[in-house]
TrEMBL record:
One of its GO terms (molecular function) is protein phosphatase regulator activity. It holds the Pfam family HEAT. It comes from Parascaris equorum. This is Serine/threonine-protein phosphatase 4 regulatory subunit 1. InterPro entries: ARM-like, ARM-type_fold, HEAT, PP2A_Regulatory_Subunit_A.
Length: 130
């Protein structure tokens, strides 16, 4: 089966609560997570970050998800940056105040000046809603 189809399916499976056990996610999915996050279909990778943060909690989120999210939010493709913005708030909810203040908030504010108006609009909307 083509990897283009497998990755979205795997993402869908792990984000549907109850379809697989937390232990399976830890034993099988997590070792492959870094490869999945490096995939060329970055918007798929970004879209699952909030769900992965919910599954694994604060420490995992701060050590693995936040660095990846902030790096991915600088991607040259505006659609990837927009996908990151869509999960920024959800990821931030799983982080300590320190990480929010020192890492996430400054990057989110920078996105208000993004070269893409779609990214800027989304960030502005999220700031008004959140």
């Amino acid at each position: 089966m083509d990897g283009v189809y497998v990755k979205p399916l795997l993402c869908k499976i792990i984000t549907c609560r109850g379809t697989v056990s937390r232990q399976w996610i830890f034993d099988v999915f997590t070792p492959r997570l870094s490869l999945l996050l490096q995939d060329s279909v970055f918007h798929i990778s970004a879209s699952i970050l909030g769900d992965v943060a919910s599954i694994f909690g604060r420490n995992f989120t701060e050590q693995f998800i936040v660095p990846f999210l902030t790096t991915l939010s600088r991607d040259p493709i505006w659609g990837v940056r927009k996908a990151c913005c869509e999960v920024f708030v959800e990821v931030a909810q799983k982080c300590s105040s320190r990480v929010k203040e020192t890492q996430l908030a400054p990057r989110f504010i920078e996105l208000l000046k993004d070269s893409s108006r779609w990214v800027r609009q989304l960030v502005a909307t999220l700031l008004c809603v959140s």
